[in-house]
Amino acid sequence: MLKLQSDPFQYMVEHRKIIIEILDQSSTLKNAWNMLVESLPAIGEVTKFNTFKGYVRILKVIDGQLSELTSENISIRKELGKVR
Questions:
Q1: Which of 30, 31, 46, 47 satisfies CB 3.0 to 4.6 Å to 26 for a cystine?
Q2: How far apart are alpha carbons 25 and 56 in whole angstroms?
Q3: C-alpha–C-alpha distance, residues 67 and 48, integer Å
Q4: What sign for the dihedral angle of Cα 67, 9, 43, 28?
């Protein structure tokens, strides 16, 4: 039996890559939601559309910041490799 998380935002963060990808492909949040329910059926059990709408903007900001940190981490590792 699949154990679903009770925290909608945590679920969205853990599946942010596919959520962001589908958001980028969709013209509206409602279309994105419908596509996500097909791709990630559990999202409909963890959260509702109105909750999704509220969290999705925050999710995009967090994803952008995590991408920046990842890029910085890679740059630092490259520099450390040159020093060693």
A1: 31
A2: 14
A3: 27
A4: negative
Quote the distance between the C-alpha of residue 43 and its chain's center. 12
Sorted by sequence, the CB contacts under 8 Å of residue 16 that are 6+ apart come out as: 59, 62, 63
Read off the pLDDT of each residue in 75-81 and give the average, rounded to a whole number: 86
Q: What is the pLDDT of residues 27-62, one digit of tens each?
A: 999 999 999 999 999 999 999 999 999 999 999 999
**Whole-structure pTM over 0.70, yes or no?**
yes
- pLDDT average, residue stretch 23-29: 95
The contacts found for 42-50 with CB under 8 angstroms, 24 or more apart, are 42/2, 42/4, 42/11, 43/11, 43/12, 43/15, 45/4, 46/4, 46/5, 46/6, 46/8, 46/11, 47/8, 47/11, 47/12
